[in-house]
Amino acid sequence: MKSNLIINDNQSAWIENALLISALALFPLLYLTLRGWTNTLTFVLSVIALFHFLSLPRSAWGIRNISGTEWAVIMALASGFLAILVSQLLRQNVIFKPYDGPLRMLLCAPIFLLLVKKKIDFVQIFQYICPLSLLILLVFVQLYPVPMNTWSDNRFGTYFVDPNTIGIYTMLLAFMCLFSIDAVSKDSLALRLLKYAGVMAGFYLELKSQTRGAWIAEPAMLILWAALHWQSKSKVALLTSTLISVLAILGFYFLTDFFHDRVNSIYYEIASWLNKTNTDTSTGIRLSMWQISWVLFKQNSFCGYGDLGYQAQLLMPRIQSAFSREAISTMEHVGPHNEYLANMVRSGIFGLVAVLLQFCVPGMVFIRGLKSSFKAIKGTSAMGLCLVMGMMITSLSLEVLTLKYTSSFYGLMIAALCASVLWKRPDEN
Q: pTM higher than 0.90 for the full model?
């Protein structure tokens, strides 16, 4: 790592910086490997940030010192918490448990401000940690496999991460490894090999999870990678990489039975749901739950129902007569399986605004960063856009921010990547 990773020059700040860099380096390392790891480091980082700002005179961190773009990122990180608070106040039913996940993301707001102030180049750290995290996870699951049939259809998962979640996040980390190649500067051979190893480990873990939502997102991610490199890379190299990717996918399709069957099932399950021959397949139930969620949202679009308040509404004749018992029961127990609809049912229009802010605000920061003339800003922005775009697509088939550790991870990643882009842009301007 470069010696100018962080700027500060007195002894007390050096201690604070060492703790900050250590926690930043560690939080992604065992994200999917050890329960409670990322949540714990979120609290550690937030304590460091709060202690830093509280130790300063008020004039050093007043509202006027925060730019409009920084306020937008803060609002994005706080939006989930605020959506639940406003909707609960409107329903006059304040319950503390729903704040668990959104609170983690809210704690990332002071961390974001500290990283901007400290001018920390997060990608300098993350480009090593991202592939290492996937390789550690791969070794862990080989040494300590979960018992057979822990997850349905022998899909891959760990002792605390379900197959859908692990499939989506290993896919995202694999693509971030790919996008990180030469993102900061020309990579050494050893670093490039480490990143390629991370890509392979991530895609292997994703494949074994059999998560169709992650597979569906991959073409868009590959198109994004090709589009971002269209001007900077040889057209022959890009076409060759595209051809290799297509051949690899076709090879898996024709040679791997479970991949072949799971891909085909997407078409057959959607077709059977549309023509009503079988609406209770995995995809069919999910599509029915989306329809049920839309019915619930239209009935109470302003303040929603909270986490469980919608369950009583499932007894409405309008729902009971239109949907199967299996779809209604699944909706009752697991929710919509869609991040957008889940927030709309939970917090009404405020929930929808919150989830759009969580994705669109960082997305705009990264899109603006892609226009920079500095390679490091463009590279960081490309990695950030990869994360946001992957989350936006996979959110259609899964509630990707419902769990506490997923909220912590996404909040920290957005705080760190947005800070890395924003503190550099004033220098350019």
A: yes
Say yes or no to pLDDT of 14 above 80.
Answer: no
d(CA 273, CA 376): 47
Closest by Cα among 417, 407, 363 to 31: 407
- Whole-angstrom distance, CA of residue 215 vs CA of residue 283: 14
User: CB–CB of 343/87 below 8 Å?
Assistant: no
Residue whose tokens read 């469980």: 308
pLDDT tens digits for 355-377?
999 999 999 999 999 988 888 89
Q: Where are the domains positioned within the chain?
A: 11-232+338-428, 279-334
Question: Rounded to an integer, what distance in angstroms lies between the CA atom of residue 375 and that of residue 233?
Answer: 14
Q: Give yes or no for residue 9 having a pLDDT over 80.
A: no
Gyration radius from the chain CA atoms: 22
Nearest C-alpha neighbor of 79 from the set 345, 356, 300: 356
Q: Which helix (H) or strand (E) holds 327?
A: helix 325-334
Element (H, E) at 110: helix 100-118
Q: Which residues of 231-269 are buried (b: 16+ CB within 10 A; e: fewer)?
A: eeeeeeebeebeeeeeeebeebeeeeeebeebbeeeeeb
Is the distance from CB of 336 to CB of 328 less than 8 angstroms? no
% pLDDT > 90, the chain = 63
The answer to whether residue 7 scores a pLDDT higher than 70 is no
Question: How far apart, in whole angstroms, are the C-alpha atoms of residue 241 and residue 118?
Answer: 38
Residue 87: CB atoms within 10 A of its CB come to 25
Which residue in 118, 125, 158, 202 sits closest to 380, CA to CA? 125
Q: Which residues contact 412 (CB under 8 A, 6 or more apart)?
A: 27, 28, 38, 41, 42, 45, 108, 111
Length of the chain: 429
Residue of 412, 403, 387 lying closest to 48 (CA atoms): 412
Q: Rounded to whole angstroms, how far apart are CA atoms 342 and 305?
A: 10
Contact 60, 276 (CB under 8 A): no
In eight-state DSSP terms, residue 153 is G
CA dihedral 224, 367, 197, 259 (to 10 degrees): -40
User: What is 3-71 written as a DSSP string?
Assistant: TTSS---SHHHHHHHHHHHHHHHHTTTTTTTSTTHHHHHHHHHHHHHHHHHHTS-GGGS-GGGS-HHHH
Phi, psi of 255 (to 5 degrees): -110, -15
Phi-psi region of 95 (alpha: psi -120 to 50; beta: other; left: phi over 0): beta
